Amino acid sequence: MVRQPVIGVAGCGEMGLPMARNLQQSGFEVYGYDVRPAGEFGDFSTRMLENAEALAARCPVIISVVRDWAQTEELCFGPDGLFSGEGHPETLIISSTLSPKMISNLRNIIPAGTQLIDAPMSGAPFRAEDGTLTFMLGGEPDVISVAMPAFQAMGSEINHLGPLGQGMMCKVLNNMLAASSVVAVREILNAADALGFPRDRLLEVASSSSGGTWFGDNLDKISWAKEGYSLINTIGILEKDVNALIDTTADFPELRINEFARSVIAELRNLPEE
Questions:
Q1: Which residues are bridge partners to 118 per DSSP?
Q2: 235 Cβ neighbours under 8 A, 6+ residues apart
Q3: Where on the phi/psi map is residue 160: left (φ > 0), alpha (ψ -120 to 50), or beta?
Q4: CB atoms within 10 A of CB 209
Q5: pLDDT per residue as tens digits for the range 7-60
Q6: In this structure, which topology does domain 168-269 adopt according to CATH?
Q7: Most exposed of 58, 62, 168, 238 (fewest Cβ within 10 Å)?
Q8: Residue 181 near residue 219 (C-beta atoms within 8 A)
Q9: Are 219 and 203 in contact (CB under 8 A)?
Q10: Class at the top of the CATH hierarchy for domain 7-164
Q11: pLDDT digits over 224-256, tens only?
């Protein structure tokens, strides 16, 4: 039997913590790191390490689930970061949603001996808990094949989309679809309320009709479905993801998606808490 590598999960929030637990349940030795105190992680608290440097020293494979590029830079190169000590990870898997340009930048500034995979995921916390996430992978086939058992422990749909950066390219396009559908569903439900049509009945019919969307079909399962806009919640993360698409398409000003993306951001910022 091939011995699986020890895996570290950096960023044990609503997505990272259930991902770590599913890896553990599948037989991997798993450790975590987060800026929050270890005591906040329940039965996983004994697996939480004090900093990213300690995580890299113990775990040859690191999965990063931090929020954005600024946190990715801090994780990798800040004090006590993944690359601040002598023990660098053999493989770094980026499951945060970033601009594909940032993945290319990261490849250029981390040590050449560290393999890099972009592996953003989709599915919301309830699918992270179920181990049924959708992964979008970019990277070398031989590197991804070694990591595939870990992805299979966390997800049910694993898509290798091409070389480094292609997973992230797919994710920013996908999240533009998601963000626009969040705005559309929320506004349509408000209209249904005003018109006196039961929203539950509308969503039931839409789920098997042309109006079906992932957000509408899973509204009762999505923990953040009724959130209003805030920089620190999931609606704010959607704004960050749309901005990642805008960064990706910056060299194509003729694309209408740029104007549409900015309008979606404006609508996200206007979403009230329900």
A1: 94, 138
A2: 182, 224, 227, 228, 229, 268, 271
A3: beta
A4: 9
A5: 999 999 999 999 999 999 999 999 999 999 999 999 999 999 999 999 999 999
A6: N-(1-d-carboxylethyl)-l-norvaline Dehydrogenase; domain 2 (1.10.1040)
A7: 58
A8: no
A9: yes
A10: alpha beta
A11: 999 999 999 999 999 999 999 999 999 999 999
Burial of residue 60 (number of CB atoms within 10 Å: 0-12, 13-18, 19+): middle
User: Is residue 96 packed enough to be buried (19+ CB in 10 Å), middle (13-18) or exposed (0-12)?
Assistant: buried
Q: Where do you find CATH 3.40.50.720 in the chain?
A: 7-164
Q: Tokens representing 98?
A: 């970033």
The type of residue at 174 is N
Sheet of 133-137: strands edge to edge? 121-122, 133-137, 155-160
80: left (phi over 0), alpha (psi -120 to 50) or beta: left
How many angstroms separate the CA atoms of 43 and 130, rounded?
Answer: 18
CB within 8 Å of 41: residues ≥ 6 apart: 12, 17, 32, 34, 47, 48
